[in-house]
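Re: folding output
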Amino acid sequence: MSTATATSRHPLPDVALVRDLFGMLFDGLTVKAGGKLDVSPQSHAYVGVYIADDGSPSALCACDLALAANSGAALSMLPPNVAKDAVKSKELTDVMLANLGEVMNICTRLMIQDNTPHLRLQQVCKANALPAPAAAIIGAARGRVDFEIGLGKYGAGVLAVMCM
C-alpha cells in the first residue's frame, strides 16, 4: 500500500497490489504507474463509487474507456476486436458493463485493509453521470494514484483510485 496517503481514511494501492488483484482475473497482465486519467464529465471514463457504512461516498475507482472495454471483454473471453469496436463506438455492450461492475466490485480490495473502515461498491456509471456527492471526491480526494494496466492481447488502459 502507498504510504503517501497518511491523511486518507483508506490507503492507496501500489503497483504490486494492483498486479496481484488483477492478476487473479486476467492473463498477460502488466501494471505500471500511469498518467493522470481524465475523469471530467467530458471524458468517456467509467467510475465506481464506493460508499462507507453511513452511505456517504468515500472513494472512487475510475477507468478510461479502453480499460472498461478491455476488462469487460477479457473477463468473458470475448474476442479482442469486440473491445476495440466498443472503444471506437464509445459504447460498451451489456456484457462488458456487467463485467466492469464485477471488476469494480473486486477493486474494493484495493482500498480496504483489516484496520480501515468498510467500503462497498454503490454503483458504476459514466463520469458525466456521477452523483454530485461522488463527483465532489474528484477535487477533494486526499489521495489519488493512477496506473496503466495492460491486459495482454486486449490492450492497455488507465485506472485511477481516489480516496477521501
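--- second protein (sequence, then structure) ---
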Amino acid sequence: MPMRSPGRVFWPLAGLMVLADCSSKRAIEAAAPGVGVPTPVVEDVVRFTLLYNKGAAFSTEFGPYQRWFLIGATLVFLLLLAQHYRQITDAGRLATVGLALLAGGAVGNLLDRLTSARGVVDFIDVGTQSTRFYVFNFADAGVTIGAILLGYALWRHAQSDPVHEATQS
C-alpha cells in the first residue's frame, strides 16, 4: 500500500543521513591524531582511523579521472532515483526508508568528492587484530543498509503485486 505522504519520511531521514555523515567526518578530521593512526573506541574491535579514499567502494580505483567519473556516476544515480521516486515510495514505508538512506549516503560522499581532491573521509574501522574490514563512514553504511532495505521492499512489493501474481500462474 502506497504511503500518503512519503516526503514526510524521506526528506527528514535523507537530511539526517547527510548531516550525520558530514558532521561526523568533520569531527573526526578535527580530533584524529593523524591520517592512518587508529584510535580504539571499543577495545580493538571498533577503532576510528582517519583515511581519505579517492576511489569507490573498498578503495576500488578507476584511473586518473576517477574523481570526476565518480562525481558524474553519483549524479546520474541520484537523478535516476529522483525519476523513480514516486514508483519506489509507492512500494511502502520500508522502500522509502531505504531510498532515503541510499540517497542521503550518496549525497554525503558526493559532497566530499566535490569539496576535496583528497577523497572521501573514511574512519570507522572494524575488526580484530590484523583482520580488519575496509574502513568506511556513515554514508557508506547508509548506502549499504538503504540498498538492502530498498531491494527487499521492492521484492516484497513485486511479490504482492496482482500483475506479478497473474504472470506466475
